Amino acid sequence: MNDVADWWQTAIIDMEPGRIELRGTPIQDLIGNLSFAEMIWLMVRGDRPSDAQARLFEAALVSAVDHGPQAPSIAAARMAVTCGLPLNNAMATAVNMLGDIHGGAGEQAVELYHQVKASPLGTEAALDIWTSERGKIIPGFGHRFHSPTDPRAPRLMEMVSEAVANGACEGAFATVGREIEETLARRKGRPIPMNIDGATAVIYAELGFEPPLARGLFCLSRSVGILAHAWEQQQQGGRNKGPTPPKYRWTYTGP
Amino acid sequence: MNDVADWWQTAIIDMEPGRIELRGTPIQDLIGNLSFAEMIWLMVRGDRPSDAQARLFEAALVSAVDHGPQAPSIAAARMAVTCGLPLNNAMATAVNMLGDIHGGAGEQAVELYHQVKASPLGTEAALDIWTSERGKIIPGFGHRFHSPTDPRAPRLMEMVSEAVANGACEGAFATVGREIEETLARRKGRPIPMNIDGATAVIYAELGFEPPLARGLFCLSRSVGILAHAWEQQQQGGRNKGPTPPKYRWTYTGP
Amino acid sequence: MNDVADWWQTAIIDMEPGRIELRGTPIQDLIGNLSFAEMIWLMVRGDRPSDAQARLFEAALVSAVDHGPQAPSIAAARMAVTCGLPLNNAMATAVNMLGDIHGGAGEQAVELYHQVKASPLGTEAALDIWTSERGKIIPGFGHRFHSPTDPRAPRLMEMVSEAVANGACEGAFATVGREIEETLARRKGRPIPMNIDGATAVIYAELGFEPPLARGLFCLSRSVGILAHAWEQQQQGGRNKGPTPPKYRWTYTGP
Amino acid sequence: MNDVADWWQTAIIDMEPGRIELRGTPIQDLIGNLSFAEMIWLMVRGDRPSDAQARLFEAALVSAVDHGPQAPSIAAARMAVTCGLPLNNAMATAVNMLGDIHGGAGEQAVELYHQVKASPLGTEAALDIWTSERGKIIPGFGHRFHSPTDPRAPRLMEMVSEAVANGACEGAFATVGREIEETLARRKGRPIPMNIDGATAVIYAELGFEPPLARGLFCLSRSVGILAHAWEQQQQGGRNKGPTPPKYRWTYTGP
């Protein structure tokens, strides 16, 4: 019997009939006493944030909820609803799309920050090593749409500065982020400003989240916009809506 | 050109380079000023909750985050990670499972409450109509594991009472829920207490959320536990873990 | 121990180290002796088709593989690839979209045929009952794009006639389908011809497949087009491609 | 208008009302004339296989349809059905799980074969390079369950030999596969035989499929077993079935 019960092991939840404990605390003592953001922190890490940490964490979660129906994930949620899917399946379809290219920049930026911070060679050389190993895209900097500035990044960095002043975090990753930004501007001869992924990555790194969690937390955050758009589409109706109006269809390139 | 831009329409987000407005407010004015729970409310509804409404809403979101690796959704997240999926795909796999039976009870309970509340025939007769149309399962009441009481429900209902006292909601759906509970107990000769789906459905109905959103918000809430378990599994390792230890496999029932 | 091994039960597969039997036959005796279509039949039903049945079954599978990037499922597969998803996740994202509206028409048409066939009141009355219970859309007839005729349906019905002549099936559901077509034409004063879902539903019903399998087999068939488009997109490249060219975005309808 | 129509481009399908052409042939000329396996080949590659190529291709597709409810994908399909998901969503949930570890071995094995074949240093050295770059697992060889021999592999390799004799393929990748098998046996002092992924990878490589298609085609093949198991579970019933019988639950490892 033990080998069966041992097959799945977790330090997150303990349970018997009438008792549910999450990270060691009965669920009824969490309900009403923790904010949703604090509960997220508790669940993924096992400890609780200070008020100042929770405030910074919450800012990151709030910032990334939506980027409109042009984003493949949001578009997928809306299309899925017009195919008759209920909200859980529409949300799953959309979250599934948050892959390396659509949802992975935050994770990659945290990795970049750690690599630059740990390098004894300085930011310039560390960036060169990154580029030689991982390609020319520097995750977290520049934005193909929000030019020159992604409005979310400066606001988030302002909150990081406030958090450093409050002692909620040290600021070492904020410094790394700013150094990368300066280096890129110098190299390109024009600003390549930090975008939302770069800024949330600073926050997640400052707060001690491992790189993969930057992606996981982005998925939680974007799930909010996904739900909002799926629900709006459900109210609008529409059946089997493809990406573009039907008359445009696509271009055939075959023989 | 207009027919293309008109193909997708939304009142949720407006955008141009350097500007993102969500529900009419620039994103930089939301970051740091709204809690994550308030942001969820704003995104799916377009207005903002009062403090007392936000407190009640947050309690519902906190209560449903996890029910352990025995739940198909949590198990799926953990199995997906051992198949090599990154967190976005593992989360999607799990959220996809929150279908009518696993994630739909809250939505069905809100529908039930509305139907009972609107019935001129009283709770008894309204329950009979529900059963004749929708089957013998009364969504939101009884729990196959937490017997006699799901510890989340009484705590949530306590918070509803507090919210009624504060004027955050009217209490009409709480009354309906309690009447259903009493009716079921009388009929069965033993308590069939409200469970978490019944209690969160009271909250979502009190706060004016449409039934499908009870499922959507449950998906958001459970996504937290899904992320926590997926991440824990990623740290544990394990390759290609099936549901049970390999030696048990399954029972072959064919010829 | 038995309760664990009994938790999952199947008549499909039996296995021990070095032995795999599918539906009672060692896998090595199936490889090279069954076509892929025959294997599909064996797996979902447990028996083997005659050659004439296999030929008809294969026609249905071949007919539904693709309907272009305007279909939400195919679009989703291509978008998913530009988000960095590997083929398994891109395929899953697309198949997930084959819900009641996008992938359910075949299943609904099989249900309709059974209901009409079983009705003692005749096709006219049976159609009225269907409409009153299930809404005005008659699954399997008419096509918003292929007007007047979906080229796949006449070819499939030609093969059904051939199969009836060969004794591969009886033709009762083909008759039902044609009666519905005639009734609709008479009512509307113009042809509402059978479409691919109506024609494959005739085939699946003739061959004795239950209604849900019409959807399941459509998912298998469409998975072929999904894979082809996902792979083509992977070769084309493209990063984070939304539904329309970026400059069109969407129409904001809020305040 | 052109930029919209050009947004999605494909050489797979051309269409206008009443006309559907796949890879340049009207769909009605494909129905009844191509087997399902030949249609798969045509869709993903654009050309048609010879009879001998089709026979070998079909063997690979048939061989991988199922490995029982212990496989995470099959388990996920069955669990999904007990959560109330229709077949399309259950199939998607399962196919999603065919990630690098569960569904990627075939793709990796094709990469390995190409790398070994292209290496001027010989199989021994090429294997060392693979291990140093990609880790100690040699994809396609050894099986944790089927010991000593996966019964699918020898049968598939027999068919490759037959195909080489028929001129359907050259046999160069079969030779590479056998050399790897011999090298591993010599190094370990015991047989580490080719498994199903190694054998299907030989076939896909011999037939000229790119590595990612080995995964994509495996997803198509396994979708058959996924559908069969999902449908069987739907007929069995069961609500919210977790991985193990409820009484075993899991082991709590927290404080």
Radius of gyration of chain A, CA atoms, in whole angstroms: 21 Å
How is the biggest beta sheet of chain A arranged? 3 strands, antiparallel
Strand-residue fraction of chain A?
A: 5-15%
Placed side by side, the strands forming the largest sheet of chain A appear as 2-3-4
The chain-level structural class of chain A is mainly alpha
Tell me the overall shape of chain A: globular
Count of helical stretches of chain A: 12
| CATH architecture grouping of the domain at 105-212 in chain A | Orthogonal Bundle
List the helices and strands and how they pair.
The structure is a homotetramer.
Chain A lengths: L1 H4 L3 E2 L2 E4 L2 E4 L2 E2 H4 L5 H10 L5 H13 L8 H11 L4 H10 L8 H14 L4 H12 L17 H14 L6 H17 L7 H11 L4 H26 L14 E2 L3
Antiparallel strand pairs in A: 2-3, 3-4
Helix pairs in contact in A: 4-9, 4-11, 4-12, 5-6, 5-12, 6-12, 7-8, 7-10, 7-11, 7-12, 9-11, 10-11
